[in-house]
Design brief:
The protein is of the alpha+beta class. It has a single domain, classed as 2-Layer Sandwich (Alpha-Beta Plaits), CATH 3.30.70. The chain binds iron/sulfur cluster. The site of iron/sulfur cluster (SF4) has 14 residues, from helix 1.
Length: 70
C-alpha cells in the first residue's frame, strides 16, 4: 500500500525519484498512481522531507490486517 498524507508540501522529490508511482494532482500535491511497492518507492518515501509517504508491504497471507483507522 502506498499512501501520501495531507502533510505533503508538493516539493516534488518523490515525483522526481519515482515518476512511475507518484504524480502531482490538481492541487500540486503528490498522489500515488500505483500501489506496487518497489525499492524506488521506499527511496522516495525516505526522501520526502515531511514524511508524507506511507509505504506498507502487503502480503498475500490471509491474516487479519488492521485498517489504518485514524
Ligand atoms: S516528497 Fe513528500 S512533500 Fe515532496 S511531493 Fe512527495 S510526498 Fe509531497
Amino acid at each position: 500500500m502506498i499512501k501520501v498524507d495531507d502533510t505533503c508540501i508538493g516539493c516534488g522529490a518523490c515525483v522526481a525519484i519515482d515518476g512511475e508511482h507518484f504524480e502531482f494532482d490538481e492541487r500540486g500535491l503528490s498522489t500515488p498512481i500505483s500501489q506496487e511497492v518497489t525499492d524506488s518507492v521506499k527511496e522516495a518515501a525516505d526522501a520526502c522531507p515531511v514524511g508524507a509517504i506511507k509505504v506498507e508491504e502487503t502480503t498475500n497471507n490471509n491474516e487479519n490486517s488492521e485498517e489504518n483507522a485514524e
